[in-house]
């Protein structure tokens, strides 16, 4: 059974940092794109960053230069290092997997599987 479990969310002040982790298990394909998407209160879900099976990364303009996506294939874990956090980054962050070795555009949100999400709250 496919499972994506996020951790690492929390509350920080503006300018602070958080690192999100996502433990993946049971994914059917051996090659896939992994990504982070988020949903802020009252807003639609949006893509934040993704990384393909070859390590190529893409970032939304709103987080470029502040967030870093990475993965540890040996641990089946995806990460999102978030620096210089802003109140606008407040959202539920979801880990997601797409059954393709290459990733769609960073704004894509129709992933095959998504975790339950972890809350990130940034106060001013």
The outline comes out as globular
Number of DSSP E strands: 11
Secondary structure: helix percent? under 10%
Total helical elements: 0
Question: What is the structural class?
Answer: mainly beta
Roughly what is the average pLDDT, rounded to an integer? 95
Strand content: over 45%
- What is the rounded Rg? 13 Å
Describe this entry's structure for a reader.
The strands form 2 sheets. Strands 2, 4, 5, 6, 9, 10 and 11 form a 7-stranded mixed beta sheet that branches. This protein has a 4-stranded antiparallel beta sheet with strand order 1-3-8-7, with no helix packed on it. The protein has 124 residues and is mainly beta. Strand 7 (67-72) and strand 8 (77-82) form a beta hairpin. The model has no long low-confidence stretch (mean pLDDT 95). It has strands at 3-7, 10-13, 18-25, 33-39, 46-51, 57-59, 67-72, 77-82, 91-98, 113-114, 118-123. It contains no helices and 11 strands. Helices cover 0% and strands 49% of the residues. The radius of gyration is 13 Å and the shape is globular.
């Amino acid at each position: 059974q496919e499972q994506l479990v996020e951790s690492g969310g929390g509350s920080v002040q503006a300018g602070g940092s958080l690192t999100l982790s996502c433990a993946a298990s049971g994914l059917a394909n051996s090659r896939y794109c992994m990504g982070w998407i988020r949903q802020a209160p009252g807003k639609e879900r949006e893509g934040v960053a993704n990384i393909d099976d070859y390590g190529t990364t893409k970032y939304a303009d709103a987080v470029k230069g502040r967030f870093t996506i990475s993965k540890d294939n040996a641990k089946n874990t995806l990460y999102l290092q978030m620096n210089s956090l802003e109140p606008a980054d407040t959202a539920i962050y979801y880990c997601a997997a797409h059954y393709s070795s290459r990733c769609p555009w960073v704004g894509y949100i129709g992933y095959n599987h998504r975790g339950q999400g972890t809350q990130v709250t940034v106060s001013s």
